[in-house]
């Protein structure tokens, strides 16, 4: 992969703050999340040397689309002039969505034990695995035309760091993905940059 990907996780939501699994639930940014989105614009501008030539694509979930709109506005670009690709939406946690990890440990200890044994291949009830997530994400990324800003979700960032930067699945699945930061993927490696 010769192109550069400026990978951004959406800004904070109230569910992030509460430690709830959002998955496919459409939760908007909170005040800190909007500030984090603005911060990422400065990082993208610094790393790219000028963002006007970049391709911009985001998950259609509002927390990612809001992050992208704020980022673009901070760059002096039309806020809503970006593509939304449903393949970049967050991993589905199925019936676990809305719960916290401690709640799940009490409510579904057998399911959590199965996840702990093989977190990359495990799919929660009614949800999807990281293996399944990776298939749809890689299809979306293969269509990028050049250097791109991709605003998406923690699970998608993990899948991309595994696929494009060689991070082992066991490390990727447990990686805490920062909000308000940019993961620059280039030449089989990644760099984490903050404002």
Number of helices: 8
The tally of beta strands, per DSSP, is 6
Q: Helices and strands: which structural class?
A: alpha/beta
What Rg, in angstroms, do the CA atoms define?
Answer: 16 Å
Mean pLDDT: 96
First CA to last CA: what distance? 26 Å
> Which percent band covers the strand fraction?
5-15%
Q: What is the chain-wise order of helices and strands?
A: EHHEHEHHHEHHEE
| Overall 3D form | globular
Helix content: 40-55%
Low confidence ranges: none
What kind of sheet is the major sheet?
6 strands, mixed
GO molecular function, one term: phosphoglycerate mutase activity
Enzyme class: isomerase
EC number: 5.4.2.12
Protein name: Phosphoglycerate mutase
Structure description:
The chain is of the alpha/beta class. The chain is 41% helix and 14% strand. The protein is built from 8 helices and 6 strands, in the order βααβαβαααβααββ. A 6-stranded mixed β-sheet has the order 3-2-4-1-5-6, with helices on both faces. Helix 2 packs across helix 3 (62-74), helix 4 (101-107) crosses helix 5 (109-117) and helix 6 packs across helix 7 (154-165). The longest helix is centred in the N-terminal third of the chain and has 18 residues, at 31-48. The radius of gyration is 16 Å and the shape is globular. The model has no long low-confidence stretch (mean pLDDT 96).
